[in-house]
Amino acid sequence: MKQPARGTRLAGIIETTAVLVVFFQALRVLFSVLFGAIYDALFAETVPMTGVGMILVAVIAALLAPLAAPRRPEAHRATALASAALVLLARIPLTLNDPQARLVASILIVAAAGVYLATRLRAAPQDAVRALLLALIVDQFLRALGHTWDVTLREAWLPAQIAVSLVLCLLSVWLFRRRQAEMATPGRRWGVKLGLAWGGWLFLQTSLLIFPNVVARWSDVSYVGLASIWFLMFLLVWPSDRAWTTGRGWIGGLMFLVFLLAGLALGYLASGLWAAAAGLILAQMASLVLLSSCLLLPDPDRRGRLGPALAAGGVLYLVLSFAYAFTFTYAYTLDLFRGLGLPVFLVAGLLTGLPALALPRDKAPASRASREHWLVIGTAALGLAGLIFAVSFPRQQPPPEAGDSFRVATYNIHYGYDTYWHLSLEEQARTIEDSGADVVMLQEVDTGRPTSYMIDNALWLARRLDMKEVYLPTLEHLTGIALLSRYPILDTDTLLLPSELEQTGIIWAELDVGGEPVNAFAIWMGLEPEERARQLDAALPFIEAHPGPAAFGGDFNATPDSPVYARIEDAGFTDPF
Length: 577
Hints:
Layout: H1 6-44, H2 49-63, H3 76-94, H4 99-123, H5 125-145, H6 158-178, H7 192-209, H8 212-219, H9 226-232, H10 249-269, H11 273-295, H12 306-329, H13 341-353, H14 371-392, E1 408-412, H15 425-435, E2 439-446, H16 457-465, E3 468-475, E4 479-485, E5 489-497, E6 504-513, E7 516-524, H17 529-544, E8 550-555, H18 563-570
Parallel strand pairs: 1-2, 7-8
Antiparallel strand pairs: 2-4, 3-4, 5-6, 6-7
Helix pairs in contact: 1-3, 1-4, 1-5, 1-6, 2-4, 3-4, 3-6, 4-5, 4-12, 7-11, 7-12, 7-13, 8-11, 9-14, 10-11, 10-13, 12-13, 15-16, 17-18
């Protein structure tokens, strides 16, 4: 078989990388807008359940789209062109901050990208694996530039996105004319087991492992620096990933499966840089090695069923994503779902690694990249890692001048959305700016949930407003309350309050206001009167343990004439209103 020209191969990797970057973006968007539709149907009752049912049918159909990928090599060229063009053109409306437009665009992208991936994995599996890793790197870079909010998913990016999509479409047309012999590559050993591994791996990446802000919140470590470490980690896997398992066979596969499961458990249960963050670094390394090693297994008999395997993986991904969403959404109504996050991730990790237990023992040495190849890749990666570190580091702003008073605000930011599920973090930041608040108590704060674009609300608002932040996770490390301050923060403490419904808590921060210590308390209280009473029983002693001048605010879920306000005033606080 004639090998494709070097320029054609490079262009093909660029095209595949672009398609997969858009695919990962579309998955984030899809589950975010889907969350809004389901929420409105269940709680606000503004969307009929039949409408949600139709949306779910469309989502499932999109995930099953790889079934339509042709197996005949002569059909691959046209399929690659059509599916890539659909992905790249549908990416344009994905930029709009409109839930309906984003829903339709993301479903189209997921369907077309599935067909495209099935085609490219058949035609050029090694290049497809390289492009998969590159897509993860590019996606991480775009999010780091925007402090966890992808800079290309904002409406200001629309003109640039139109230009990028059109240029990439022209590249796809050029490749269509150049691709002939490349499409005759032998098949790969794909079956249901490897398809499930793809679904488990996709869930792990899009819910945790590719997002340094999520790893930072799981580990309770600083996001600064971790983003660069996460970026550089890909150097250990790419471009000689098969070398990790070559010659070890199933023993090597078992070793990396143990690394993956142990790393996930350590990351979830422990805290601190060396315990949790190191565990999740190990888990990410293992997940990348496991999938790339399995994807490159030869299938001399050409019995692999790539389309059905990818479709099965897509359905598994959907099931795991909904199971994980339940640990947030229904943890306060059904005890069964409390703490379910770790089991969901362990199931995904187990399925990701199972095919590696059947890895053959390869007697031939794995091909390794040349020193020059490593030098070029390493230099570029170090440069980009340095840029990521620079943009992730918060700007140092002088504190405001202290006067006789300072302004305090409380804000329920609804996970960064407005009432109609438009992503409204920028508008919320401007509201805080216009208020002139020096200290802000935030509720319903997400820091990396799949249903809120994986954005760290607290970190993004703090960077945008040049403020310091304290965060208290109340569910699964990634949703809770926060406190923002323009003044230096000297010390902090947090407490989870007794909660039978949604888990709530209280934050204490000691602020340096013109050289004088001032306490600030941020709280979020429950929906039921009895629950609020029990929470105050725990919160007031916590407040009394930190004597001195104090500001206390948050979402009390109570009216000024309620017992909650009376008890707070009896504790010595004055309502400024």
